[in-house]
Amino acid sequence: MTTRNAASAATEKGGAARAAATRRVPSARASASTPRKSPSLTERAYAEIEDMIVTLRLAPGTAISEAELSERIGIGRTPIREALQRLSREHLVTILPQRGSLISEIDVKKQLRLLETRREVERLIARSAARRCTEAERERFAQLAKLFVTSSKNNDATLFLRADKEFNDLCLAAARNEFAAGAMGLMHGLARRFWYLHYRQAADMPVTARLHANIAHAIANRNEAGAAEALDRLLDNIEEFTRATVSTDY
Question: Domains in the chain, start-ordered, CATH in brackets?
Answer without folding.
Answer: 3-7+19-103 (1.10.10.10), 108-245 (1.20.120.530)
